[in-house]
Amino acid sequence: MWDGNPVRLSLLHMLPGVAEERGVALVPLLAQAGLATDERFVGADVVARGQLCSLLRQFARRSGEPTVGLDLAAAANPRQLGAAGWALFSGRTLRECLVALSRQMPDLQGGVALRLEERNGTASWRHSFSDSDREHARVLNEGIAAFMLRAVTRIAGIGSEQAGVHFPHRRQGPARVYEDKLGARVTFGSGDGIALTFDAAWLDRPSLLFDAATPFDPGPRSAAAGLDQGIWRDDAALLAMIHRLVASAAMSGALSLVDTARSLGVSPRTLQRRLSGLDTSFEREVDTWRHAQARLHLTGDTLSIGSVARTLGYGHPSHFIRAFRRWEGRTPRAFRVAIHGELTEAR
């Protein structure tokens, strides 16, 4: 079975560094996987997922480390994963983070099914590929599971030993090797994808990484803590906090005055009155934030128009295009072409 679903090559942004550390030449492996020998592992370059799986299997063989996917995950930087990487750490709770990841996943790779299930106090986060052979995708699946385990436990502030990891393929080494590297319970050999299991109570705990300066590191403050420090009395600080909350909610497509007010610890009516005193409103601040972010994203070429729309919380690209026409008098594509032309002339 050949998996031709599109995936950003930046999913393996850490591969060149890990290959260099292990003394493995990548050029022959790229050629064997049908990839250009000068491929970049950053930006928006897209290849077939089957090619990535082949590349990773060859890399595991050449490095002599069957569980190298776990090591690649440890070297991953979420900021290199585009909108999906931003989304994973955007939520105010673990549940919001996982919902946001699911919404933004099409920007990173296609043919992915994500499910979050809750039963008898246990949550199961499931990830599976369509058109993929479980053994062929083994190294990629192990890397994704290890990366997600690290993210989930850091967001919830829980030790990995309290979670379980399931792989659909046969193990390639002693179980203790997997358990030592992951620090979690591990099972193998059934199902159509990977699964993380953990206490369902984790889902609604405040994220320790919300508003963090760096993914995987605790943020400097939370919205509630900010209010204690006087943000409610500081006009500029309040608006900045609202924009951060809007950015978080947009990733999951759940922009709401009610949710924003709840995060600030006030009633929706109180928040509206406070904003009215600043001659603005929640709707106007959302619009202002969306306009600024749209210009920022369109200046680059990493995100497609559809991906930009999703990161701004729009349910459909057409809604974003109409809003952008209102802001700029032209379509997002026309704006991007014009900006790139100006940048080229400036050089």
Automatic annotation (TrEMBL):
SUPFAM superfamilies: Homeodomain-like. Residues 236-338 form the HTH araC/xylS-type domain. The keyword DNA-binding applies. The keyword Iron does not apply. Keywords: DNA-binding, Transcription, Transcription regulation. GO terms for cellular component: cytosol. Pfam families: Arabinose_bd, HTH_18. This is Helix-turn-helix protein.
